[in-house]
Amino acid sequence: MSLRPLVTALLLGLPTMTAAAPLAYPPTATVTQSDDWHGTAVADPYRWLEGDVRSQAPVADWVAAQNRVTQAYLATLPGRDAIKARLTQLFDYERVTLPVSRGARTFYRRNSGLQNQSVLYVREGDAAPRVLIDPNGWAKDGATALAEWAPSNDGRYIAYAVQDGGTDWRTIKVLDVASGQPLADDLDWVKFSGIAWNADSSGFFYSRHPADPKGKDFVSAVYNHDVWFHRVGTAQSADVKLFASTGNPGYYNQATSSDDGRWLVIRSSTGSDDSYEIRVADTRSAAPKLITLVPDRKADWRFAGAEGDTLYFVTNDGAPRYRVVAFSGVGSGAPRLTTIVGEGPDTLTGAHIIGTHLIVTALQDARSDVRRYTLTGKAEGKVALPGLGTASGFDGVPGSATAYYSFTSYNAPATIYRYDAASNTSTVYAAPKVAFDPANYVVEQRFFTSKDGTKVPMFIAYKKGLTTPAPTLMYGYGGFNINVLPAFQVDALAWMEMGGIYAEVTLRGGGEYGAQWHDAGRRLKKQNVFDDFIAGGEYLIGSGLTPRGGLAIQGGSNGGLLVGAVVNQRPDLFAAALPAVGVMDMLRFPLFTEGRTWTDDYGDPADAVQFRNLYGYSPYHNIRGGRDYPAILVTTADTDDRVVPGHSFKYTAALQAAQIGDKPHLIRIETRAGHGSGKPTSKQIDEITDLWSFIGYWTGLTRK
Questions:
Q1: What separation, in Å, do the N-terminal and C-terminal C-alpha atoms of the chain show?
Q2: Is the pLDDT of residue 18 over 70?
Q3: Quick one: 7 exposed, middle or buried, by C-beta within 10 A (0-12, 13-18, 19+)?
Q4: CB atoms within 10 A of CB 305
Q5: Alpha helix locations (H) across 571-632?
Q6: pLDDT tens, 28-67?
């Protein structure tokens, strides 16, 4: 796709900035607040910004003032109209999710392109698909979304969750598929819940917190996340509590079920540490009884499916890069554990039973490889993939050898494939038509050396024929055993089309190379993650790909912490930084919403040794004057109840008060948006326009 429209717009005299003048930031009041942390006095002058923006007027006024300054500044940047126009074109393509087949019906979500929210469709046999649930009329601003959903095993009902304004809280409803009419079932106080139907489709299991007479608080910590059973057609007050973590009110208990609904599986953990207790129950019983398969939280256990009374899991128990195991004889009450696929050099990420075959997904240097086995573990070759990228899905159609999976890469929007396990063949089920030619883009993987000598991978994507060095956007996450894998993103494609390089670093702290890779980047070893990211930036510049003064960095949530930390440590390395919804106060994070669960990855500041480590890199506490910082645009949202916006508010206030140079240090605060999920397409386009205008200017990409 030609860059001519963008280049023409820039040459026609759009506003440019020849010099960066100091901004007049809104005044931020300070308070005399100091806390004693293990004998160390720590000041917290912006403590008042932790308040809920919805209910505390001073915080709301501060937010409004900051947004006015930020939007006024962004309006002066060159190329904004051209960037937004092109983003709108790039977003305007059909997106279809993986189909789910139950009974004679197949369900999937589809976005025609610029719809704010995707629509749920149902297809019956060979009939034309029909709209089942369209959330686009639920809110004028498009910010009320269809979240989790699951059809009953006979396809008669859909249970679905409604997410309003980006919050993690949900309301679960039930819809009759034949009539398309919702039932009276409304389940409230739901958060971080699956929807697991029982065998006869009379009801489902879900997770919820107790009702609080004070209402939903978007700041305070919540406890007692229990598993309940809801029978279709009854009131929530009649629901039956199946499981609660007695003695561990901070645990999260999530329910899932086998494809046929027979087996219920409950995974219990602190929420973010990837070590679980496992309990199962046969839902064919009128009063299902839980059987404990894994009594202690010592390893990760991922349910892979069931065949009769044999249950399959992928686990890192005794295998840092995971193995596939089976508990046989579960129905007898005396289950036996055997290894089906042993640990190998690559990290196994999941397994699925499709007909009489076991499909195992693995990572080879952070890119997908898919293997086939019999249910007893005999190797049967591989599933052919179309290139370097990420394959996901493979959930089977009950009673058949059919499954669906998607494949994506930085230059390839997700294509849905129908897979026949009997013949080991894939056929295209849904392929998007896009406003660019994927063949015009290059995707590479390179390796560089981090500070301690560790080899670290990096994916690099750019448009063919690009002349280097070129302005570069480097993204990272590095935490919680989460894999950052090649995937198509409209914003990254737009950056490449504008003439930039897009890079993603496979940081320690993730799970791409198994448990040891994760452990090497958490708790007292968190600095390794920052060192990896800094070394990645040095590699990009040192290799000639990126000019000095042309490197921007981006990360969200734990990645926002990453960006904040490395900017403090190496402000000279970066031209611009985009920390999104970041964890910025590493001493008070356990006090809010789900923050207590993150101590497994970060460490607990209540411990003296861990406090010193956390205090040493906390973005909020380590802003140092006397050095020129890069241009920074912080982003968060008023209803983010995952990483509360007070983190970003306090961090921004500290940036603006410090003597760190004249480049802008701004914050963009979205309204009726949370941690990211459910954000309408229109708001995504507006936000990316702001971000790319900002870093485009400060890396030199859009300067005249």
A1: 21
A2: no
A3: middle
A4: 22
A5: 599-602, 608-617
A6: 999 999 999 999 999 999 999 999 888 899 999 999 999 9
The answer to whether the CB of 406 falls within 8 A of the CB of 395 is no
Contact of 205 with 196, CB cutoff 8 Å: yes
Amino acid at residue number 538: E
What is the three-class DSSP state of 384?
coil
For 532: left if phi > 0, alpha if psi spans -120 to 50, otherwise beta; the answer is alpha
Residue 247's alpha-carbon distances to 253, 276, 410, in angstroms, are: 13, 16, 46
Instruction: Tell how many helices (H) and how many strands (E) occur in the chain.
Output: 11, 39
Residue 529's closest CA among 456, 595, 615, 474? Answer: 456
Instruction: Compute CA distances 463 → 80, 440, 499, whole Å.
Output: 21, 6, 7
Residue 2 above 70 pLDDT?
Answer: no
176 vs 144: CA distance, rounded Å: 21
Write the DSSP symbol of residue 199.
Answer: T
Q: What is the mean pLDDT of residues 470-481?
A: 98
pLDDT surpassing 60 at residue 546:
yes
Backbone angles phi, psi at 51, to 5 degrees: -65, 155
Outline where 467-607 has alpha helix (H): 490-497, 515-519, 527-542, 558-569, 599-602
Q: Tokens 């809280």 appear where?
A: 169
DSSP assignment of 13-45 equals T----SS-PPP-PPP------EEEETTEEEE-T
CB 368 within 8 A of CB 346: no
Distances in Å between the alpha carbon of 262 and those of 8, 190, 311, 375, 540? 61, 23, 11, 19, 52
Catalytic residue among 230, 357, 665, 675: 675
Query: What per-residue confidence (pLDDT) applies to 5?
Result: 30
> According to the model, what pLDDT value does residue 312 have?
98
Distances, alpha carbon 339 to alpha carbons 62, 324, 526, in Å: 57, 6, 33
pLDDT category of residue 309 using cuts at 50, 70 and 90: very high
What is the tens place of the pLDDT at every residue in 647-664?
A: 999 999 999 999 999 999
Task: Write down the pLDDT at residue 402.
Answer: 95
Mean pLDDT value across residues 91-112: 96
Token readout for 457 is: 């991978």
Q: Which of 207, 269, 275, 557 is catalytic?
A: 557
Structure tokens at 590: 């356990």
Angstrom CA distances, 571 to 285, 539, 545, 551, stand at: 61, 16, 20, 11
Is 665 catalytic? The answer is no
Catalogue all structural domains in the chain, each as residue range(s) with its CATH number.
38-89+436-698 (3.40.50.1820), 95-430 (2.130.10.120)
pLDDT at residue number 21: 52
pLDDT tens-digit profile of 189-221? 999 999 999 999 999 999 999 998 888 878 888
9 pLDDT above the threshold of 70 = no
Average pLDDT over residues 452-472: 98
pTM of the predicted model over 0.85: yes
Q: Is 390 helix (H, G, I), strand (E, B) or coil?
A: strand
Q: For residues 245 and 223, what is the distance between their CA atoms, to the nearest angstrom?
A: 10
Nearest to 138 by CA among 107, 169, 116: 116
Q: Which amino acid is at 133?
A: I
**Active site includes 677?**
no
To which residue do tokens 């229109």 refer?
Answer: 682
Average pLDDT over residues 357-373: 97
Paired with 338 in beta bridges are 326
